[in-house]
Amino acid sequence: MKQFFKFVLATVVGIILSTIIIILVIAGIIAGASSDKSPTVDANSILHIELKYPISERTPNNPLANLNFLGLDGDKSIGLKDILANIKKAKTDDNIKGILLDESYMLSGQATTEEIRNALIDFKKSGKFVIAYAEVYTKGFYYLASVADKVYINPKGIFEFDGFSSEQMFFKGALDKLGIEAQVIRVGTFKSAVEPMILTKMSDANRLQVTSYLGSLYGHYLTGIGKARGINKDSLFNYANEARIQQPEDALKLKMVDGLKYRDEVLAELKTKLGVKQKSNLNSVEIGDYGNTSTDDDTKEVSTNRIAVVYASGDIASGDGDDNSIGSETTSKALRKVRLDDKVKAVVLRVNSPGGSSLASDVIWREVMLTKKVKPIIVSMGDVAASGGYYISCAADSIYAQPNTITGSIGIFAILPNMQKLFNDKLGITFDDVKTGQYADLGNTSRPLTPAEHQILQNQINHGYDDFTKAVAQGRHKTQAYINSIGQGRVWTGEQALKIGLVDRLGNIDDAIKSAAKKANVKDYKLVAYPEQKSVLNKLGESFSVQMKTRMLKSELGENYPVYEKIKSLTSMMRTPLARMEYDVVVK
């Protein structure tokens, strides 16, 4: 009986605590919602931009972002969509006199940086100033900051300017030690996604393509900086190649920055520019708080015409997706909805994806094809739109990419692990079976594939590649033979893709929207975004458990956490045909 009362008491206490937690969460949501009003922007203010978080396409729908409660991430991040909208609004806001571009990590791809950089260039057309300051200029942040009217660095700061490099991780040695053989079935000479599991270094073909697209990215980078700073591109190349910038004084001498200043000196200069007394506070508003604007309301509210922007960001898989993943079901529903909505006159498909499931990619491609038959659909590519990301793009009326977008990678592969040595030799485990047909256990990981089984899988991959190249040829109005010649899994930059016909124009998402409106012959319209973002209540439990798990793993693994993520990603590749550019293009 005593034990019974102990269990009852524990249950009651648990219920009470759960109720308190739920009440606190709801209170937090209500508080967050009630404070989600446009802040008052004082006259004579500056817009403060500090980007120290990965930049997603859309701002997360999370009113608890500022609460740092129950293990939820308390950092408030803002998506690219709202960053661009807020810079655009500040351009015509009389209360905003200029922008302070503060030290930023730029944990995003180069095309995202390009979009923000172009927005700053447009902002300067208003005659307002942009000042950049940092203690550490990474290559990405310097590219962004180079368009500022004044670029300042801390006198003891760090200035990174030594060229681009791209490193890939290989796992074959580890798999050999474990007794695991990666059985690869692929199409495409350049489809190097499988190389980490079958090689210990880059193949000649992979090295060729990496050298090519890295050179294209670097050339665009140097050209942009050279134009902004008035320095010859060849000179910039030599500065980096010869390690000419080792101290902040070197950067100043070579006119890469305009001054060596501490933060207080920069703030003093801002006060002088605004005519504020040095003892007074400087009025400023954070980019994440400013206006809470949205490109959805960018145009005339009275118009009944709509341009739908359908966001497709992350890995492609079957089923439902979210802000950071593309689910074939979620994205297909969104495309069907805008296709059947008579108010929607045109569609922009915003793609930021390295691909994923070839089947899920084909399901989305079908919806793009059907949409194209009834209304214009334009693709805007973000940091990456490769493999399956290109598959879902190729049927559009036209494709916009940034010069430093990563795209192409037209190819398909599958990997089936053979773990016989691991089971037999390492663990002492053996298997025996009974089957009713020769291929009843096809795909069994406890033994190697037979030549006949390998050929069956190769035929499936060949068929998938044939479908892929046919779809691209149809969408791009090219012959399948030509698409095959530039396909083979090869990765291209947007600048290169324009020359070979994989994209139509270089431009940002705003250019794609204008093109869609023009093709639909509408001048007044309102932007609407799809798919609908999940509310924080729908994601609360998931967010809590995932974030707690991630934090614990990061704490335990430290700098080895990226290795864990890579291994986790590789295991998900096993057994499923993929149209994916598996390795990430990380430029250091």
If you had to describe this structure to a student in words, what would you say it looks like?
It is a single chain. With 588 residues, this protein is α/β, with parallel strands linked by helices. Among the domains are: 39-161 and 245-286, 2-enoyl-CoA Hydratase, Chain A, domain 1, CATH 3.90.226.10; 295-414 and 466-580, 2-enoyl-CoA Hydratase, Chain A, domain 1 (Alpha-Beta Complex), CATH 3.90.226.10. The chain has helices spanning 2-34, 80-92, 110-124, 139-145, 172-178, 195-198, 204-229, 233-241, 248-253, 263-274, 328-340, 358-374, 388-391, 420-426, 451-476, 480-486, 494-500, 509-520, 536-557, 561-573; strands at 45-49, 96-101, 129-137, 150-159, 181-187, 259-260, 284-286, 306-313, 315-317, 325-327, 344-353, 355-357, 377-386, 398-401, 406-408, 412-418, 491-493, 505-506, 526-530, 578-580. The strands form five sheets. Strands 8, 11, 13, 14, 15, 17, 18 and 19 form an eight-stranded mixed beta sheet that branches. Strands 6-4-3-2-1-7 form a six-stranded parallel beta sheet, sandwiched between helices. A two-stranded antiparallel sheet has the order 5-16. β13 (377-386), α13 and β14 form a beta-alpha-beta unit. 39% of the residues are buried.
